[in-house]
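Long-time lurker. I teach an intro course on protein structure, and each term I like to show students one example going from raw sequence to a predicted 3D structure in token notation. This year I'd like something fresh instead of my usual example. Would anyone be willing to generate the tokens for the chain below so I can use it in lecture? Attribution to the forum is fine with me.
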Amino acid sequence: MKPRKVTPADTRDRGRPAFWLCWWLALAGFVVLASFAAAFDYFPGDRGLTDAIQKGDARAWREALDWASRLSEWPAMVIVGFAGAATLWLLAHRSEGVWLLASLALTQLNGAVKLAVDRPRPSPEFVDVREVATGLSFPSGHSVTAVLLYGFLFYAAGQALPDRRLRYPVQAVCVIIAGLTGLQRVEAGVHWPSDVLGGALFAGLILALLIWSHRRSRARWPAF
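-- Reply from a regular --
Happy to contribute to a lecture. Here you go:
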């Protein structure tokens, strides 16, 4: 008797328990982090890390941080989202374009978490506040946008750009924007490092669900 050929569906089924185990563990980690953020205005190590990041005062470094941060706020985030969706549609990757717009919309969930945690922003008593920012601190909204929007762009580029000479530069820019955005929020004195970590973790949880749902939809409706 010949052994049954392993299909892509079999591979997906085998990896599903590991995916959900990791996702639920990450969710539990975020809940713990958010609970402590609700109880404490900042964590041990937040002030030290902020001081270290704010010491990097080279002009080119600050300009790079500001550039990345601007791409994760209104209106640039909307322009990037719709331009990316239109490009994916033209490349015959319509579902990736739709899910990219969904990632843009889901960044707004950050506001509900902020209200629930109710953590104040860093005080000028502890850090050099270099930018005017209102609202609450945890999680960092810029970090949520950067990881969620540019994280899905990273994934979509892997699906839509078979040529590595195009795919790798696009993905590299996505990683750079996501990383520098978080650093900029700390450098500006408007978020603690733990706020940025919380934003990245929260966005990562949503991003994982988006990619999972996209893959399931492509398996069911490959023509879309």
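Some talking points for your students: Residues 12-220 form one domain. The radius of gyration is 19 Å.
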